[in-house]
Write a structure and sequence with these properties.
113 residues; mainly beta; 7-stranded mixed β-sheet; 4-stranded antiparallel β-sheet; 0% helix; globular
Length: 113
C-alpha cells in the first residue's frame, strides 16, 4: 500500500499562489491515479484535479489556474495553484486510487480577500 503526506498549504491573499505537495511512500505514485480533492467548511468534498498515467484532468472551477506536476525521483505529485480566490479556501487532500483508495491527512489552504 501507499502512504501519502500533503504539505504546502497556508494563508495567501487573493490572486496569490501556493504549491501543494503530495509525497508518496511505500509504492510509487505512478502505480495509481492521483486525485486532488478539497473540502470547504459545511460543504461536500469536491474533486479538483486528477493525474493518471501522465494525463491530467481539472475541475472547471480550477481549470487554467491549477496545474498538476510530478517528480518521479521524489515520488511526489504537486498541485500548483495560481490566481487563488477566496472560494478556493478548503482543506486539500490527495488520494491514490487503485484497487483501494488511500488518502493523505489534508492541508489547509486559506485565501483572504
Amino acid at each position: 500500500q501507499v502512504q501519502l503526506v500533503e504539505s504546502g498549504g497556508g494563508l495567501v491573499q487573493a490572486g496569490g499562489s501556493l504549491r501543494l505537495s503530495c509525497a508518496a511512500s511505500g509504492r510509487t505514485f505512478s502505480s495509481y491515479a492521483i486525485r486532488w480533492f478539497r473540502q470547504a467548511p459545511g460543504k461536500e468534498r469536491e474533486h479538483v484535479a486528477t493525474w493518471t498515467g501522465g494525463v491530467t484532468y481539472y475541475a472547471d472551477s480550477v481549470k487554467g489556474r491549477f496545474t498538476i506536476s510530478t517528480d518521479n525521483a521524489k515520488n511526489t505529485v504537486y498541485l500548483q495553484m495560481n490566481s487563488l480566490k477566496p472560494e478556493d479556501t478548503a482543506v486539500y487532500y490527495c488520494a491514490a486510487v487503485g484497487t483501494y483508495t488511500y488518502w493523505g491527512q489534508g492541508t489547509q489552504v486559506t485565501v483572504s480577500s
